[in-house]
């Protein structure tokens, strides 16, 4: 179940106030990519208020997902406090051993949580990168096909299967039983039947793409370049599938979760005041600490299967639109170039040399302009105070430059100074 979906009895959740507070005010980043409206929500000052209630509502529904271990821990905490009330029962931690133990193991627990959160975030990041690489690879492949192949039918077949390829990976990583209807519409019924019958439909797509590249009669260099893109895209798809089908070592996950849960179960005994009274503050402290720690473990558990936390549908639609625009944009660029060449030919301008550079880097004016600007910014003189002179006849940008003061400058601040003596005796290379 996607983490964004609400939870509750009788299918009536979320209620109106809850939806207004915790759904409508938070960007839905599990279904939409982060565009300017989402960024405005993420950077809004309301995020501080939302952070106080981060355990309620989307995107992770933390409190709902940890309700059973949290309830069990709270029952244990209340039971421990009730136990302390009865005088006939001995005190559990009369000498403060549990309190000292908690201090000793708290650092180890923080390391475990940090390790698990870091590893699962790396899985999420790698999963997102792999999906992007698949889409970018399919788009690059079609750009090559549209540029090099002249047969319109082959180009159209490339377009169809380059669109289907990312959707085939999406079907696997999101555990869908059938190909997305958007992608299925690009296949003929016979092709869709072959795809559906195959145990790994994505291999059917790649095989067809390679066949199209072979049928295009490309040059060896072009075919090699297309094959390189296919192999890189196939590798990225394999990385995404590896994340989907290989969880983190179960022992690591169990140790991290078990450490947190056992620590929280024993926490009430370390918070008791040994006063033979029910310590409400200790119960509240136990609830808050347990909520914080179990929430970290829950977030790590959700990121272990990262594709439920990504806008996979939106990502696929983006690459579909990109591929469909290639032919239109390529034809528009070609038409614009033809019109521009015709206009230049009518005006008598050689299209091979247009446009002329604004500055000729070998000219004296350009060298003087650059050096004057650099020296003015470096020395802090006004433009009238800078008199650049080249030490040789070639006025190029690499010449050695000298500065001399103007009479006005000498009169104001350099009295008695030889006006022909360089004000700055340094070599400056532009």
TrEMBL record:
Transmembrane segments: 251-272, 278-296
Any GO CC annotation of this UniProt entry: plasma membrane
Keywords: Cell membrane, Ion transport, Membrane, Transmembrane, Transmembrane helix, Transport
Recorded superkingdom: Eukaryota
Chain coiled-coil ranges: none
Keyword flag Cell membrane: yes
Membrane topology category: Multi-pass membrane protein
InterPro entries attached to this UniProt entry: YneE/VCCN1/2-like
Protein name: Uncharacterized protein
GO MF: chloride channel activity
Subcellular location: Cell membrane
PANTHER family, sorted: UPF0187 PROTEIN YNEE, VOLTAGE-DEPENDENT ANION CHANNEL-FORMING PROTEIN YNEE
């Amino acid at each position: 179940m996607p983490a964004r979906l609400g939870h509750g009895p009788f299918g009536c959740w979320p209620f109106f106030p809850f939806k207004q507070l915790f759904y409508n005010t938070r960007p839905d980043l599990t279904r939409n990519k982060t565009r300017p409206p989402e960024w405005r929500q993420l950077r809004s000052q309301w995020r501080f208020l939302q952070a106080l209630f981060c355990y309620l509502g989307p995107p992770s529904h933390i409190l709902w997902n940890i309700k059973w271990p949290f309830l069990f821990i709270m029952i244990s905490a209340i039971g421990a406090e009730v136990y302390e009330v009865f005088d006939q029962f001995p005190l559990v931690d009369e000498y403060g051993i549990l309190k000292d133990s908690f201090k000793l193991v708290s650092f180890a627990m923080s390391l475990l949580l940090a390790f698990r959160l870091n590893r699962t975030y790396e899985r999420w990041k790698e999963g997102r990168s792999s999906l992007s690489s698949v889409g970018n690879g399919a788009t690059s492949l079609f750009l090559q096909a549209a540029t090099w192949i002249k047969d319109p039918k082959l180009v159209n077949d490339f377009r169809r299967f380059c669109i289907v390829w990312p959707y085939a990976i999406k079907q696997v990583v999101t555990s869908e039983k059938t190909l997305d209807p958007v992608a299925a519409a690009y296949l003929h019924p016979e092709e869709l039947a072959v795809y559906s019958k195959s145990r790994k439909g994505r291999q059917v797509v790649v095989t067809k793409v390679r066949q199209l590249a072979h049928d295009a009669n490309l040059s060896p260099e072009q075919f090699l370049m297309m094959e390189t893109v296919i192999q890189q895209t196939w590798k990225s798809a394999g990385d995404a599938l590896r994340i989907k089908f290989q969880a983190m070592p179960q022992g690591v996950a169990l140790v991290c979760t078990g450490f947190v849960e056992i620590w929280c179960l024993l926490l009430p005994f370390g918070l008791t005041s040994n006063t033979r009274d029910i310590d409400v503050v200790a119960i509240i402290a136990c609830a808050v600490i347990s909520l914080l720690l179990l929430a970290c473990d829950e977030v790590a558990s959700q990121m272990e299967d990262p594709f439920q936390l990504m806008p996979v549908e939106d990502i696929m639609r983006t690459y579909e639109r990109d591929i469909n625009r290639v032919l239109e944009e390529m034809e528009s660029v070609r038409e614009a170039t033809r019109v521009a060449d015709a206009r230049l030919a009518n005006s008598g301008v050689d299209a091979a040399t247009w446009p002329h550079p604004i500055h000729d880097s070998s000219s004296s004016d350009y060298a003087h302009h650059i050096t004057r600007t650099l020296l003015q910014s470096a020395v802090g003189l006004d433009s009238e105070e800078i008199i650049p002179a080249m030490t040789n006849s070639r006025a190029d940008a690499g010449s050695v430059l000298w500065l001399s003061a103007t009479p006005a400058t000498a009169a104001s601040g350099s009295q008695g100074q030889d006006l022909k003596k360089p004000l700055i005796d340094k070599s400056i290379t532009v």
